[in-house]
Amino acid sequence: MEGKVFFVTGAASGIGHCVATRLIAQHAKVALADIQFEQLRSQFTVSPTVQLHGLNVTDPIQWQEALTATVAAYGRIDVVLNIAGVLYPNWIHAAPLSEIDRQVDINIKGVMYGTQLASKLMIEQGFGHIINVASMAGMAPVPGIGIYSATKFAVRGFTLAAAMELRDYGIAVTVISPTLVNTPMLAVQLDREETAVSFVGGTNTLTPDDVADGIFKAVRTKRTEICIRNAFLPKIATVFPGLNGLMHKVASTLGDRNRKRMLAKRQS
User: Which of 83, 131, 200, 214 could form a disulfide with 251 if both were Cys (CB 3.0 to 4.6 A apart)?
Assistant: First the structure.
């Protein structure tokens, strides 16, 4: 990664923070962005190879300003990483409209804004790579986080389409789809029974480093899609959606057992 220029959203916590830390250690040039700017500033130090940006990904003007500042500092952007995202567990009928708006705005529109504005910049420079982080919940529907799941379906579909559109311009586009990752987003789900199916894969969750490994693999290979662990069942669920209803009760029971185990372990 040495010498490459990366723009990273969601860099103040979770996967984004892990990726940012590893990029700096590998002597990349980075522009780190997060809406939680004070948290970001407390964790990283500005230097000739590290920029910090307060960025609300739902604001295209802020996006443009941050990307422009990055090019002004480094002369180009090699890779844009759209990692920022939110999740609010809830049954669809019970979720307040604000939860729908916020997840759609950040998870979908934030990625679309970043991809579109980065692609314009990269078309001008003649090269680049855009990597969008989705989820296995964007391959198989997950009750209890149905709104989040819908946003990740959108991210995956949008990214695959963007990859086809931008290929002729010399721009690679990749979607990363991990299973459960041990981040603050996981903690939000642990004490909510609605999220039982999320845990059907077991208690052995991914770490942010696992996802960072997948992202760095994408940088090296420029593959269009990288699934991180246990992609077989989600793909089956996509091809045969009728199986989801048949398996829901079993998956919910098993997943809730795993969820309670993980919660008890954290509380002990």
Answer: 200
Active site residue 169: no
Q: Where are the alpha helices (H) located in the chain, listed in sequence order?
A: 14-25, 37-43, 60-74, 97-103, 110-125, 146-166, 184-190, 208-221, 232-239, 242-267
**What type of residue is 205?**
T
Q: Which pLDDT tens digit goes with each residue over 119-163?
A: 999 999 999 999 999 998 898 888 899 999 999 999 999 999 999
51 with 32: CB under 8 angstroms?
yes
Distance CA 96, CA 151 (A): 16
Strand-pair partners of 185: none
* pTM, 2 dp: 0.90
Domains of the chain are 5-267 (3.40.50.720)
Q: Which class for 29: exposed (0-12), middle (13-18), buried (19 or more C-beta within 10 A)?
A: buried
Residue with tokens 């844009």: 80
**CB 122 within 8 Å of CB 171:** yes
